Amino acid sequence: MTFEVSQVKAIVFDVFGTVVDWRGSIIREVSAAGKRLGVTKDAKDWEQFADRWRAAYSEGTREVREGRREWVTADQMHRERLDILLAEFGMDGLSEEETRQLNRAWHRLDPWPDAVAGLTRLKSKYIIGTLSNGNIGLLVNMAKYGGLPWDVVFAGELVRSYKPDPKVYLKAVELLGLEPHEVMMCAAHLHDLHGAAKVGLSTGFVARPTEYGSGERKPDLKADSSINVAGADYPEFADRMGV
Amino acid sequence: MTFEVSQVKAIVFDVFGTVVDWRGSIIREVSAAGKRLGVTKDAKDWEQFADRWRAAYSEGTREVREGRREWVTADQMHRERLDILLAEFGMDGLSEEETRQLNRAWHRLDPWPDAVAGLTRLKSKYIIGTLSNGNIGLLVNMAKYGGLPWDVVFAGELVRSYKPDPKVYLKAVELLGLEPHEVMMCAAHLHDLHGAAKVGLSTGFVARPTEYGSGERKPDLKADSSINVAGADYPEFADRMGV
Description:
Two copies of one chain form a homodimer.
Chain A (H helix, E strand, L loop, with lengths): L9 E4 L8 H16 L5 H23 L8 H15 L7 H8 L11 H9 L3 E6 L3 H11 L5 E4 L10 H11 L6 E5 L2 H9 L3 E5 L22 E3 L2 H7 L3
Parallel strand pairs in A: 1-2, 1-4, 2-3, 4-5, 5-6
Helix pairs in contact in A: 1-2, 2-3, 5-9
């Protein structure tokens, strides 16, 4: 089927990396927590803390998706890895309440500077929502924190699995009462978009070249030819979506 | 446990009747459709059309909740009854597309005049969401239509049952990652609030004395002593919630 922008009624967004700068936000929070405890580390160490914390989520969501682990939320995966990292970094002096607060750093991730204005433009014409592997409570708190103007909050949690499991994309389509091609998955990550396209969703790419900073993972800098709409940033993506 | 307003972190709202004037909106839509078809009726007849259409939903949600019927959405229940009513009212001249459009009148219900301002005030301090027996797609479209500023959209659809089934209230609590007493159910209907209170939610009442107009059903004019917070309208309810 030929893609036309006019077929899209709703856009659902990947969140971590696509809408918010998880890495910069987490580095800021963990280094501040270290400072309060008198733990001195290099900038590189805090970057490693953030990347290893994030890796728990990538690994955990894969384990759940592949049936190797019972359902657990992002909050739970973050907490398990946090306990390990705090011990390794000599930060186990945090109280239970402080540890809980720090684990909720994932609820306080800063939007990329162009994201809120871009989403607000898109909201004028489309239903906009999340479709994230983060849990609903996390996503709602993050939206309040960062002023993300979602119309609706969807997550893998609704089917107790994780993207790119087809069930996750199809649940959002079903709950919106739309056809798959009327829903566009928007992400900075091609593997997520390929998962969505496999079950018939439209696809949108927004480049986020600094997501991984100087870390080992490399961002997808460009869309491939399978992607329906691509923008180098939110303003360009919104232009191409006709808003 | 003694109730304190400060324990509330999220308020989830009943929608039909509590936030939107379903009866006035539906009477407007069905009488306009009749007029287009050249069908002449008294105002009383159009009121009866609206009330009988609404009754399909009340009956259908009860049948699903009690296990006497497989899961169907509000949209589906509305469509079944609409086909019957159109025939009875001599309006079966509508095309399939026109009938679909008319069935979506339930996605275009006007907010009560004080609702959007009241919700906007409450949103400044609380997570605000729906907890409705309407399906998610219907609720999202209605929010776009009426400018309802929800942070999150919950519905019985998420557990394929209907309020006052305890599962519906508890699913919203679970997805928010909160304790039941941290979530307030707000409605103009005491039976809904009693259902929520039974599983530990806090309760808020907003009076909507004109919901049923001159119809047979009578509104709950006041809260009873079990309700935690009550307002005669949205401004008073927001005052009492400390915003």
